[in-house]
Specification:
The protein has about 150 residues and is of the alpha/beta class. The chain is built from five helices and eight strands, in the order βββαααβββββαα. The chain binds zinc ion.
Length: about 150
């Protein structure tokens, strides 16, 4: 019986939806899932160790190692073969009551019904993190095709 996949916790989606090649036009993209982006960010950008990152993402360390390995292979493939990188999809979730202000580029936690950013006081630039992350998710059918790729 296949083991049930555990969803991965992420805190902040990427600022961009992806990257395109420079000096070389292509329609082909490597698809980096949100959990793979988060692993790269926490391990390589924030320099956290694997034990800590696995705890943050609420997954086992071997699972994190597999996610990280896949992410690096996809990025390497894009760099070497000249492909765009699209960041989307993946079985991810974020904490309830977390909100993102696109004006201040911050995440904050509130249980208030009327959500205003604690810094700029805006309510128009604020979205729940789960809504924000949903924009990055791709349809299930598309995910299946992509998973066969790498
Ligand atoms: Zn704000």
């Amino acid at each position: 019986m296949p083991r049930r996949r555990r969803r991965r916790r992420i805190f902040l989606p990427p600022k961009v939806r992806g990257f395109s090649t420079y000096g070389f036009d292509t329609e082909e993209s490597a698809i980096l899932f949100l959990d793979e982006f988060e692993a790269i960010k926490l391990l390589d950008y924030e320099n956290l160790n694997q034990v800590k990152v696995a705890a943050i993402m609420n997954i086992s360390r071997p699972t994190l190692t597999r996610i990280y390995d896949r992410a690096r292979k996809k990025i390497a493939l894009a760099l070497v073969e000249g492909k765009n990188i699209e960041i989307r999809g993946g079985d991810v979730y974020t904490e309830e009551h977390w909100h993102y202000c696109s004006n201040c580029d911050i995440v904050f936690n509130t249980h208030d019904m009327n959500v205003n950013c604690p810094f700029c006081k805006s309510d128009v630039n604020v979205r729940s993190m789960n809504d924000y992350i949903a924009d990055f998710k791709s349809p299930a059918q598309e995910r299946t095709i992509i998973r066969k790729g790498i």
